[in-house]
Structure formats: C-alpha cells, structure tokens
Amino acid sequence: MGESLGAEHPLRLATALRVVLPRRDRAVPAGRADLHVHSIWSDGAQAPAAIVRAAAGRVDVLAITDHDEIRGALEAREFARAHSELGIDVVIGEEVSTLNGHVLALWIEERVPPGLSAERTIALIHDQGGLAVAAHPFHPIPHHRVGYRPLATLIPHLALDAVEVVNNSGIFSRIYDAWAALRNVEWMLPVTGGSDAHDVWYVGGALTRFHGRDASALRRDLLAGRTRAHARWSWTFDKMPRHFRMQWRSAVRFVRLNRRPIEVS
Ligand SMILES: [Zn+2]
Ligand SMILES: [Zn+2]
Predict the structure, then answer these.
(1) CB-based burial label for 166 (10 Å; 0-12, 13-18, 19+)
(2) Could you tell me where the beta strands, DSSP code E, fall in 68-155?
C-alpha cells in the first residue's frame, strides 16, 4: 500500500512529508554569491568592469572564474574596490581545466596551471590558501582528457572543499544539477551555486546563499558546510530567443578562442 502510494502519487507524498516533517531553519540566508562567471579574459562576452556593474543589486559576492586565467578576476576586484557604492565583493577565481575535468579555484592570488591531475590542481589551490570546488560534475559535455577518469568518479577521493550543485547555464542544467545534488548524499560536500554566465544577462541566475554579506563570511560558511545553492530563475519560453542568440554568440567566441593555445570547453 505504502509502495503504491509513493509510486503513483510522488508529488502528493512529497507534499505530505513537507507538512509532517519539522521545519527547522527554514529561513534562507541573506547573502547572495554567484561563484562561476566568465569575462572576456576567457570566453565571456563582457569586460570585468561591466560584469561588476551588472552584478550590483543581484549579488553581494561575485567570483570571476575564467578558464585557466585570473587577470579578469584581478581587474574586476580592482574595479569593485574603486566603486564600493556598487556593493560587490569580488573573489579571485579560475576555472581550471584539469586532466579530469573542470575545478573551480576560489580565493586564489596566483594562476593555477591547466593540464594537471585534479588531485595536483587541488593541492596547488590549497597551497595558496584557496578553496577547490568541483564544477558541474555531470555536465553532458565531457571536460576530462581522453584516457583520464572524469572528475565525478574521483570526487570521493579528492580533497575538494565543495561541489557546484546548481549550474544554471542552460535548459538541461536542471537535470545534471539534480544528479549532482543526489550524488552529494554520498559525498556530503558543502554546496555552491554559480550561473556559469558567459554574458551579464545570466549573472546571478544561480546563487550560493550564505550568512553575512561579504566574501569572508561566505568563506566561513562554505568551510562550515552552511551554504545553500539555488537557481534564481527557470527556463521559461520567454527566455529562449535571447538565450539561443547568446548561445550562438558564445559558440562563435568558443571557436575563435580554440584557435588560440588556451584550454576552454
Ligand atoms: Zn566548465
Ligand atoms: Zn564555466
């Protein structure tokens, strides 16, 4: 009886459980961070200053995480410090192309070289006081090199600080995000949300929520496993024309970038 109720009425069962289960700590923490954003220093559409301006009012903390590059992040931090009225705290980040897939390095000051194993990359991030986050571990496009294990299969063995369970970058992201959240039941890693924005329109589309308003409060919450991740908006039909236009532009930039000796995907 119980089994058939679950199978036939999963939504009703979920609603019932929500009523029955205690509602402890329901309030969402106030701090908003987008921890995965690209600028023109990799395959993003805008300069760091434009991204910081666009982020004002949408987030409190912004990590610029260009592919294998931190100069855009450094530029963004300088701009944000010179324009404190915008209320944006910039974290220096990098999306490192490791042999096993993409790893987000946060709170770094030196560029981490691409092309190393995930294990070595994470060690280098930690050596300079940064935090390492597994980026979109179940993205349908494989980001690991041929002959190397994908990041998702290594996660239990790596010294990661968090996993990106919300990467609201496309129509199908809900599917692989849901899978990451589900698998995190095994990994029990702190969670992050990032828009993976390649255009300012997307900035803040996915958020890491934390207690406080600045980068140091966020870092504290991440280390304590107290962050939450969520998508700020859904892929409704009205967003499609703009989304596809930007995806097209992004693809053109991607092709151009691939002509240069830089790791992107
Ligand atoms: Zn990526
Ligand atoms: Zn990315």
Answers:
(1) buried
(2) 89-98, 101-106, 131-134
- Contact status, residue 66 vs residue 94, Cβ threshold 8 Å: yes
Q: Is 199 helix (H, G, I), strand (E, B) or coil?
A: coil
Q: Is the pLDDT of residue 263 over 70?
A: no
Q: Is 253 helix (H, G, I), strand (E, B) or coil?
A: helix
What is the Å distance from ligand 1's center to 161 Cα?
17
* Token pair listed for 182: 């589900």
Structure tokens at 34: 């987008």
Cα(176) to ligand 1 centroid in Å equals 13
Does the structure show a pLDDT above 80 at 134? yes
| The CATH fold of domain 28-258 | TIM Barrel (3.20.20)
- For residue 139, the CA-to-ligand 1 centroid distance in Å is 8
CA 228 to chain CA centroid, Å, is: 12
CA distance 250 to 51: 16
CA of 37 to the centre of ligand 2 (A): 7
Q: How far is the CA of 212 from the centre of ligand 1 (A)?
A: 27
- Asked if 134 and 194 count as a contact pair (C-beta separation under 8 A), the reply is no
| Ligand 1 (single-atom ion) residues, CB below 5 Å | 102, 135
Question: Which one is predicted more confidently, 29 or 13?
Answer: 29
What is the distance between the alpha carbons of residues 257 and 265, in angstroms, rounded to a whole number? Answer: 10
What is the tens place of the pLDDT at every residue in 137-179? 999 888 999 999 999 999 999 999 999 999 988 888 999 999 9
Domain limits, the chain: 28-258
223 C-alpha vs ligand 2 centroid, how far in Å?
22
